[in-house]
Design goal:
It is a single chain. Helix 3 links the parallel strand 4 and strand 5. 42% of the residues lie in helices and 18% in strands. The protein folds into two domains: 162 residues, 2-Layer Sandwich (Nucleotidyltransferase, domain 5), CATH 3.30.420.40; 184 residues, ATPase, nucleotide binding domain (Nucleotidyltransferase, domain 5, 2-Layer Sandwich), CATH 3.30.420. By secondary structure, the chain is an alpha/beta fold. It is built from eleven helices and ten strands. It is globular, with a radius of gyration of 21 Å. The strands form two sheets. A five-stranded mixed beta sheet has the order 3-2-1-4-5, sandwiched between helices. Helix 4 crosses helix 10 and helix 5 runs antiparallel to helix 8. The site of 5'-O-[(R)-(carboxyoxy)(hydroxy)phosphoryl]adenosine has 20 residues, from helix 5 and helix 6.
């Protein structure tokens, strides 16, 4: 059972082919990715219309590249999958349109995959794959969730952010510091030269007693700190670009403090969730899972407690087609693809807002 998967929810076009025959983890036969980062950089963030148009340009050439990598013709594809949501509506429609048209033209089954399920299952493609059940820390640009995962399609949400996502906190702080887009990698690079104790930033909801997060206050605290430093600088505040009044060291220090605050919140809440559920295995997924300080601190904390922790391969942390083809393959193996006849009204349908809980209800 070879499944061709398309990811186009935001600023990366990803295509991959997996072999989901048998019961073992689907095998990746090929995958290709085109990142739009350079195109959006000029605007300081993702421009949805430009993203959609670029997905149109990339999807089919990437599919050709994947088939070439796999050494297989299009006729060897048995089913097609695409990211149905959540994400940017126009961008999702491109992947959905291409995948559904391909499936329709060739009479193949097609499945719309939940983007977060893709992230959640992506560590199964790593050299050290997890086993069910596990606790998942899902940290991306749009979501921050702690989930109990019993199996494919069996997810229980235990906690989530009540405002910004962890990735958003990285991105917004990086923007304030003039570090550009995408903010996570840029901020974490700048932080390497900084002192994480130079300034005191809050740890919102650290002691809230639940497993929820809040990052909006952190962004405000960063703005206050940057304003304070800009006003005290010899050249005065260079409004509206406050960061221009800061020295490279001050920027590095603020970056290190923000990263330390976000990582402390993620690590402490994850460990609290492990203690509460009695789980002994943690899976970290989503773009922020690429952060090296987060990996370092989670590894150390989990080692102390005797927990196992699993990550996707670094290149599969951020958006990619492999995780979508994989999730489709694991759903196929679990018998979770809807019957063909009931799927017609799904075609070309996307869900820009799609809580993972809805997916569980369908499983
Ligand atoms: O999972 P992802 O590629 O897209 C979404 O589904 O949102 O995650 C993107 C997010 C962005 O906020 C980006 O800044 C963040 O992941 N990110 C990082 C790192 N690499 C990507 N954050 C911190 N450190 C990193 N190394
Ligand atoms: Zn994502």
């Amino acid at each position: 059972m070879r499944i061709l998967g398309f990811e186009s929810s935001c600023d990366e076009t990803g295509v991959a082919l997996v072999d989901a025959s048998g019961t073992g983890t689907p095998r990746l036969l090929g995958h290709a990715l085109y990142s739009q980062i350079e195109m959006h950089q000029a605007y300081g963030g993702v421009v949805p219309e430009l993203a959609s148009r670029d997905h149109i340009r990339r999807a089919l050439p990437l599919a050709d590249e994947v088939l070439t990598q796999a050494g297989l013709p299009l006729s060897a594809v048995d089913a097609v999958a695409y990211t149905r949501g959540p994400g940017l509506a126009g961008a999702l429609l491109v992947g959905s349109g291409v995948a559904c048209a391909m499936a329709f033209a060739r009479g193949l089954p097609v499945l719309g995959v939940h983007h977060l399920e893709g992230h959640l299952l992506s560590p199964f493609l790593s050299a050290d794959p997890p086993e069910f059940p596990f606790l998942a820390l899902l940290v991306s640009g749009g979501h921050t969730q702690i989930m109990r995962v019993e199996g494919v399609g069996r997810y229980e949400l235990l906690g989530e952010t009540i405002d910004d996502a962890a990735g958003e906190a990285f991105d917004k702080s990086a923007k304030l510091l003039g570090l550009g887009y995408p903010g996570g990698p840029a901020l974490s690079r700048a932080a390497q030269q900084g002192d994480p104790e130079a300034y005191r930033l809050p740890r919102p909801m650290l002691h809230s007693g639940d497993l929820d997060f809040s990052f909006a206050g952190l962004k405000t605290a960063v703005l206050t700190q940057v304003k304070r430093l800009a006003h005290a600088s010899p050249q005065g505040p260079a409004t509206p670009d406050l960061a221009k009044a800061l020295s490279a060291q001050q920027i590095a220090d603020v970056a290190a403090c923000v990263q330390a605050a976000i990582v402390e919140l993620l690590v402490k809440k994850s460990l609290k969730a492990m203690a509460q559920t009695g789980m002994r295995r943690l899976v970290v997924a989503g773009g922020v899972g690429a952060n090296s300080l987060l990996r370092e601190q989670l590894n150390a904390a989990c080692q102390t407690k005797g927990f196992r922790v699993h990550y996707p391969e670094l290149h599969l942390c951020t958006d990619n087609g492999a995780m979508i083809a994989l999730a489709a393959g694991m759903r196929w193996q679990a018998g979770l693809w809807p019957a063909q006849d009931s799927r017609h009204d799904d075609r070309f349908d996307v869900k820009p807002r799609w809580p993972l809980a809805d997916l569980v209800a369908q499983a």
